[in-house]
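Researcher: Please predict.
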Amino acid sequence: MNLTKRILLAFIITALLTSIGFAQPKIPVSEWSGKTILLVGAHPDDDSRSYGTLSMLQENGNEVYVLLMTMGNVGTKDPDMTRDRLAKIRRGEELRALNEIGIPKENYINLGYNDGMLEFTDQEEVVRRLVKWYRKLKPDVLFAFDPGYGYQKWLKADHRRASYLAVDAARAAEWRLIFPGQITQGGLEEHLIEEYMFFSGVEGDTNTWVDISGRHADRKFEAVSKHVSQFSSAWNDYEGSNLEAEDLSKEDREAFLGKMRKRVYGNKKEGVTVEGFRYYKGIPDGIGHREH
């Protein structure tokens, strides 16, 4: 085989592998309508990575749900903060954030586990609870932390566990003989999720960029700015309850809002504000395989 043929063959193989591993949605995300969308994460604010896309999907006639596994009741450096108080603060922040992007509070689900402890919870119990929600809501698309794609992705403890729990539950939900009581006694049906949008993965594996510029980026900014306890001086000293940005001192407020603007508008591709995902379509068994 001469050099030209070898180069051509290598190009064809590369193109084929790329098309397998990096399949774009046939219908752009901006045109999705009539779908049920479920985002699964670990903490209140984990969904903030996708607020712009979720805002767009909700506006376009999709039913969007957010399921978080923990109460986020540990993430603070305030020496006077308690778990119960922080859990209430984080819930309030999450609900106010979701309201900014049009998601009703009825579509927010929290499993109530303690922050930082997902690694040590009963895995079967968590998967069973997730499967029940999958079978009840019947999502067409699952948003979740990326568990890895031909590798194990390093994520901090709860995020790492959440990434695997989310996809393990997706695999279990399609088999009627796994947790059969949900079907025979609970009236649910097995359910197969075939589309996935993974966030917080390796940048080189991002294959879908959603243009959120304009009102969806603006709504994302308003939403992330509700998480005062996590990204402002309140992290170290939370005074009062249900704090909003305007409750901070001028200096702290400007620093906080500047950080949030960068978080939202600083993520650009070709000058456009975007959110990036690894889109996958297929059976759950192929989620982490480079060859499906």
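Model: The radius of gyration is 20 Å.
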